[in-house]
Amino acid sequence: MEQVLGDEWKITPAGGATGEAYFAKRDGQELFLKRNSSPFLAVLSAEGIVPKLVWTKRMENGDVVTAQHLLNGRELKPRDMKGQNVAELLKKIHHSKELLDMLRRLGKQPLTPNFIIEDIQQAVAFAKIDQPEITQALTALIQKLPDVQCDDHVVCHGDVNHNNWLLTETNQLYLIDWDGAMIADPAYDIGLLLYWYIDETDWKDWLSAYGLELNDHLIIRMYWYVLLQALISVLLYHAKNNEKDKQMWIERIRMMLGKMNGH
């Protein structure tokens, strides 16, 4: 990174799973650098969904480095997720034709429930977990396939955890970390956000701020994606030999199965 910015910049790793992100500081100026970001980042910046992209540079080895302003702010807390600003930003993302066009140009295909089931069946078979809840979850996901079909495909973030929302000192809200972006049913994002952060009694009001009406079709789609995420999490922690978190997600599968059986 030094050859991109020069010796006068202090560069430190930013952590993260890929090890491709860095902080850079010089004379009070701070940048967030990332190696080989998707071209999608430029559109997210132009739409005001992530902090502004300052520049993009190609290195001699072919790597592309992007720089964004490092803003003073904080991650949202769980209680902040019920705010109207969250609903409005997610609506903006899901309704952006520019974001959808860019992901399509990058070769992304819609992630439909049928495609998802094929993948998750293979993953479950590979994991060989002797746990009745796993079989029950997979059976429920397959049985509900006819009820969760949706023709509305939008750009979904895929991980709307409160840690990925950044609120600046000027109250500008951003949604960051787009490595898992996909084209899918908006219920993928909405379901996870509502289920983990908003009381069900408040779902109608939150969805009203987003611009959707709460109905049975939306509810069953949201439940379906929440159950899917719980199943994926069990497989993940099983692979990591993390029994504690695996059991926590198995308990959440039980809860979701109870809710889905009521619909």
TrEMBL record:
GO terms for molecular function: transferase activity. The keyword Transferase applies. Residues 14-211 form the Aminoglycoside phosphotransferase domain. InterPro entries: Aminoglycoside_PTrfase (IPR002575), CcrZ_PhaseVar_Mediator (IPR052077), Kinase-like_dom_sf (IPR011009). Gene3D superfamilies: 3.90.1200.10. The keyword Chaperone does not apply. Keywords: Transferase. Transmembrane segments: none annotated. PANTHER family: CELL CYCLE REGULATOR CCRZ, PHOSPHOTRANSFERASE YTMP-RELATED. This is Phosphotransferase. It comes from Metabacillus sediminilitoris.
